[in-house]
Every structure is written in C-alpha cells, then in structure tokens.
Design brief:
This protein is of the alpha+beta class. It has helices at residues 55-80, 96-104, 109-121, 133-145, 158-177, 204-211, 218-230, 234-238, 272-276, 297-305, 314-327, 332-338, 344-362, and strands at 7-15, 19-31, 38-49, 245-247, 253-258, 265-269. The longest helix is centred in the N-terminal third of the chain and has 26 residues, at 55-80. It is elongated, with a radius of gyration of 30 Å. Keywords: DNA recombination, DNA-binding.
Length: 368
C-alpha cells in the first residue's frame, strides 16, 4: 500500500499574554484515526515567549523549539512507518474503560459482566497505557478468586471465569486490530481452562410429565415448554416479538430472529404445538409478564411439584431439546442449525449424552 508523502513543519501561532503556541502542520492533511476527520494541525501544548526580554527567556525559547523539532522528527518517522496512531497524542492516556464500555453496547450481556468485573479490578480507572501483560495476568487471577456481582457471598464458577477471561481477551484482540496497542497482548496470555460439567436434561417422558403439571405462573409454564420444543435460550424467549413469526414456504410456522448471545440471524421452523403455547396472536412481546426472576424459585417449585428431582435450570430445557431431537434420530447437523451453534463440534456433546443414554438402556434388560 502506498501513501502520499506528507510534509511536517513546525509552525507558530500568536496567542494571548505575549506567547506563541507551537504546532505541527501536515501537508497534505492526514486522517485522525479516532475522529476519522482529515486534519493538518497538531497542537503540541508547547509555548514560547513572543518577545523574549532577557537571556533566560531566549534560552527557554530555544529549548522549546528544539523539543518541537524533536517531536516533528518522531512524527515524520511514524508517517514513514505508516503508524498514524500518533495523531491521537493522548492515546496511551486514553480511557480504556470508556472503550470497553462502548464495545459492550453491541455485545451480549456477558460483556457487561466482564466490564463490571474489570471496572472493580482496576478501581474504576484504567488507561490504554496501563493495559499490559502483567495487568492482564493479574486480572486472570482476580477472576479465579472473584465473587459474583449479584451474590457477593458466592464465588464465580471456574467455567464462568473461563468465559469471562475469553471475552476479555476478545476485547484485547479488537483493540489491537483497532491499533490501540502496538502488539497483540493475547500472544503472552494463557486462557483459563474450563472444566467439564454434567449437562442436565429432561427425557421426553419427563417433559410430558412437566406439561401435565399445573404451574402457579402460566406464562412460565408456556415459556418453559416452548423452550423444550424449540431449544431457544431464555434471552431470546424474553425478547421474542409477534413480528418475529412468519409463514414458511411449506406453510408451517417459523421464527426469524437475531439471537441475543451470538447475534446470529436465523430462520427456525417451529411446530404448531409450539406456536399454540404462545397464546392468541397480538403485537409486541409474545410472553408478556415473563421475568428472569421466574426461572429461579418459581421454576424449582414447579419442577418439584411435577416430581422431577433433577437440578434442571431453564437452560436445561435447551439441553433437553437437543438430546430429545438426537435420540429421536434427527441428524446432528440439523440440530446444530436449530440451536444456532456456529460449529457442529459444540453440538457434539449432546450426541455423546445420547450415547450414554443408549448404554443405560442396553443394560436395563438382563437375563440374570
């Protein structure tokens, strides 16, 4: 890639109080990477006497002019190396937390959790210049021993710490791509290895058993069974709008949504039975009145009433959907698409669960 050669000149501008401000003049203009505006001037924050009265003031002027010339040389070298980040002269002093928070606006909720943990870790202040390998390693240790944000008496799980640190490293990668860092800090960081966790799920019979059990909160029951029939996450069900429903070419119902977690555009066929759980067609949110708080104790009470003792969470309904589909013969590629997984390898764990179930089934019949 070639660039037009830019000439850099130290210039002077008279200001108040018998002073002169020194600035650099770029010709042709160069683009400021932060504002994306073309600019010809960079004020250095260096001032000299307009009319030096004595030897000391003249010597001061010479020193300041030499400093300005030294900066000019650095800028010329940067231009030659195509390092245009110098145009933001406070780049190292720029607010890393503000950058982090800005990134969270277009990401899922986990990014906000990671931001809050990092904010707590650095006590609310951090510049780009302070983000180095040592700081990132200390943040890794912090996550391994941190408490939950909502429950300060409970530690965050190892897998949560792993996910949070992975997100943080993703932020560092973006910042490096955006030229806020001179090198990719991730090259020197070790990830937090997650541990295998048993995925709890319901069998088809248990889902039927749950469906036959009354629930004190009808909207919770409808949303839960809808999750079992579609595999949708709680975040997507909470945000589901009637406008998201459409009629597919085969005349069946489908959902056209952008998933909250992965921001994946997806068209997902659903059964008429799942559609019926949504109630009478309306406008706005489908499951009106559904709140996250319902998926804690109210859900546990309903499961207990149904005689289900497994530690099932609302996310367990998504696991149930995957396991039931695979156990009924649906190929793993189709299940992966329905779950909006980016990689089939993520879905493979459900196939492994089914294999375990097959082994349990095989051992149930014995002639001894």
């Amino acid at each position: 890639m070639t660039h037009t050669c830019t000439k850099v000149t130290v210039r002077q501008r008279a200001i108040r109080n018998n002073r002169i401000s020194l600035y650099l003049d770029y010709y042709p203009a160069v683009r400021n990477p932060e504002t994306m505006q073309m600019s010809r001037r960079e004020y250095l924050g260096i001032y000299i006497y307009a009319h030096p009265k004595n030897e000391m003031e003249r010597e001061f002027n010479n020193d300041m002019l030499n400093k300005a010339e030294a900066i000019r040389c650095i800028r010329v070298q940067s231009l030659i190396n195509e390092e245009f980040g110098f145009l933001d002269k406070t780049k190292q002093k720029a607010d890393f937390l503000a950058y982090f928070k800005k990134m969270c606006r277009s990401k899922d909720q986990k990014w906000t959790f990671v931001y809050q943990h990092f904010y707590n870790f650095v006590k609310g202040q951090c510049t780009f210049g302070e983000v180095n390998v040592d700081l990132c390693k200390k943040f890794r240790e912090y996550l391994l021993n941190a408490k939950q944000l909502k429950h300060s008496n409970r530690p965050i799980s190892l897998n949560s710490a792993s996910g949070y640190y992975s997100t943080f490293r993703g932020l560092l990668k973006i910042a490096y791509r955006d030229k806020w860092f001179r090198e990719n800090i991730n090259d020197y960081l070790d990830k937090i290895e997650p541990q295998d966790v048993k995925k709890e799920y319901l069998t088809l019979d248990e889902v039927k058993q749950l469906a036959a059990t009354p629930c004190d909160m009808p909207v919770l029951k409808a949303a839960s069974l809808f999750a079992c029939l579609t595999g949708l996450r709680i975040s997507d069900i909470l945000n589901l709008q009637w406008e998201d429903f459409a009629i597919a070419p085969d005349q069946g119902y489908c959902l056209r949504i952008r998933t909250q977690k992965t921001q994946t555009e997806a068209t997902l066929p659903i059964s008429y039975e799942a559609y019926e759980l949504c109630g009478t067609p309306d406008t706005g949110k489908v499951f009106k009145g559904l709140k996250r708080s319902m998926i804690n104790y109210p859900l546990k009470n309903w499961l207990k009433k149904a005689g289900i003792t497994k530690p099932i969470t609302f996310h367990g309904f998504r696991h149930s959907y995957a396991v039931i589909q695979i156990s009924l013969g649906t190929d793993i590629y189709t299940v992966s698409k329905m779950l909006t997984h980016k990689n089939v390898s993520t879905t493979q764990i459900y196939a492994d669960l089914v294999n375990v179930k097959k082994r349990e089934t095989a051992n149930k019949i014995s002639l001894k």
